[in-house]
UniProtKB/TrEMBL annotation:
Annotated source species: Faecalicoccus pleomorphus
Biased composition (Basic and acidic residues): 1-24, 35-46, 56-81
Region (Disordered): 1-102
Organism superkingdom: Bacteria
Name listed for the protein in its UniProt record: Neurofilament protein
Composition bias, Basic residues: 82-102
Length: 392
């Protein structure tokens, strides 16, 4: 720039003198022109610079944004990596939770075991009580039942829990109404009580399935010449028939066909065999045994209508013979007199009556046979037998 100023001074001339154009002057003129155009150029340059700066800023922003996004991506990646690295820590947390649950489960199991042991000890204590004591404790809880009532329930149901359920339906008692710790008994006593009764009863529902085979075995018995064998058979038959009678009475059964639905076989032949064995055995037993048998066999026949019609006369004649055998002639004669009055066909009755006295009072036996001839002739089945008694 200083060089340009020097050139400008040398071109100045005197007033009125036309300046001589020189290269320097031309250069100066150009320079002036250039200086006038410079502002626009500067503005353009400035604008261009601003534009560049804007572009740079934009690029910088873009780069910064890209950088930010890259950083963000990196952070996400790092976060994922960190998360992946921290994953085992979750397992540790799960383990801790599991451990807590396991501990809780152990505590619950421990309580359950303790409760089970307490219940076991309580039931053992109940089992040490006598049956009468258990019945009394049940009554103290409001269950007003006696031994026979428990025994009857056992004939209806074989499941102890179901029997207890039936009892509580009849006597509604809340489960928490009584406490073993405070009262000395609770409702758990009932199961023990029912089991104790089951051990002592003659017949219960759980026995029904086996009774069919038992009936078949005894109805096939052949009366022996050995009195001891017959005695044992009589006792066994008596017990079996008594159980059948108890079932029929409990369930209101009045025919052998209905009884068969429970014990699976027809017991009619068993009843007949029992009567035959009793007739053989009781001749040698005591008089009171005859009376006991009489009451029992009449009860059996009265329970079953079909048995009564088929075996009433046989039972009465058997008992009358046994009374005569034991010396009670009055009761024996009275029984035969009743049977003769009640029956139109008398040949067999007269034969049995005369036969009963044959070895005891022969003359009375002949007298009975002669009386029979008033009602019996050769048309009757037992006429020859009556005639033979007279001839002997």
């Amino acid at each position: 720039m200083p060089a340009k100023k020097t050139e400008t001074k040398d071109t100045v001339t005197k007033k009125g003198t036309k300046p001589v154009e020189t290269k320097a002057t031309k250069t100066t003129a150009r320079t002036k022109t250039t200086k006038k155009a410079e502002p626009k150029a500067k503005e353009t340059v400035k604008k261009a610079a601003k534009t560049k700066q804007t572009v740079k800023k934009t690029e910088t922003l873009k780069n910064d944004k890209a950088s930010v996004e890259a950083v963000a991506d990196d952070k996400v990646k790092e976060t994922k990596k960190t998360t992946a690295k921290k994953a085992p820590a979750k397992k540790t947390t799960t383990k801790k939770t599991t451990t807590k649950k396991t501990t809780a489960a152990k505590k619950t199991t421990k309580k359950a075991v303790t409760k089970k042991e307490d219940t076991k000890q309580k039931m053992e204590q109940y089992n040490q009580f006598s049956l009468d004591t258990c019945i009394d404790m049940a009554k103290a809880m409001g269950i007003d039942m006696g031994y026979d009532q428990y025994a009857q329930l056992l004939m209806d149901q074989s499941d102890t829990k179901e029997i207890v359920k039936t009892i509580l339906e009849q006597y509604p008692i809340k489960a928490d109404a009584f406490s073993y710790e405070e009262d000395g008994y609770d409702l758990d006593l009932l199961e023990v009580l029912v089991d104790k009764v089951a051990q002592t009863v003659t017949i219960k529902a759980s026995d029904y399935a086996a009774m069919g085979k038992e009936i078949e075995a005894h109805e096939g018995y052949v009366i022996s010449e050995e009195s001891l064998d017959n005695n044992d058979e009589y006792n066994a038959d008596f017990d079996l028939v008594r159980r059948l009678l108890m079932i029929a009475q409990r369930k209101d059964i009045h025919t052998m066909a209905d009884l068969q639905t429970i014990v699976t076989v027809d017991a009619t032949k068993l009843i007949e065999k029992f009567m035959d064995v009793a007739y053989t055995v009781l001749k040698n037993w005591q008089y009171d045994d005859v009376k006991y048998y009489e009451n029992f066999i009449y009860a059996v026949l009265s329970q079953f209508n079909d048995l009564y019609q088929a075996y009433e006369n046989k039972a009465m004649m058997d008992v009358a013979d046994l009374y005569i055998e034991h010396g009670d002639y009055g009761l024996g004669d009275a029984n035969y007199a009743y049977i003769l009055r009640e029956n139109q066909i008398k040949d067999y009755i007269y034969y049995r009556y005369a036969k009963a006295y044959e070895h005891i009072d022969y003359e009375k036996s002949r007298a009975i046979a002669n009386e029979a001839l008033q009602f019996v002739d050769d048309r009757y089945t037992y006429y020859p037998n009556i005639r033979q008694l007279l001839e002997n």
